[in-house]
Sequence to fold (108 residues):
Amino acid sequence: MLVLDEATANVDAETDDFIQAAIRKRFAHCTVITIAHRLNTIMDSDRILVMDDGRVAEFGPPQVLLSDPNGHFTQLVALTGSHTSITNQLKNSLLKDNSLRSNGVLNQ
Fold:
């Protein structure tokens, strides 16, 4: 298990992408818990836990959370102003998930 608490908070976006790719590659078969405020850091996660005022507001796959137009996660994405970028990242994540499921690697 790997726990990351704001591991890339003080780096630029390009370095963040590099670090995230390295983590995904090196820890592909591990449970990774990521605490982050940058949504692009967590968009390819299997599950997202959204906290609000110290309580669980939402929990689930990002595509499910984004399907609720009134959900906390959807509102957070809207506030970033980068909905298109995050949506593209989510589509890539879904393609990866579908490929892994069809190969029997990922089960829900």
About this structure: Helices lie at 13-26, 39-42, 62-66, 72-80, 83-102.
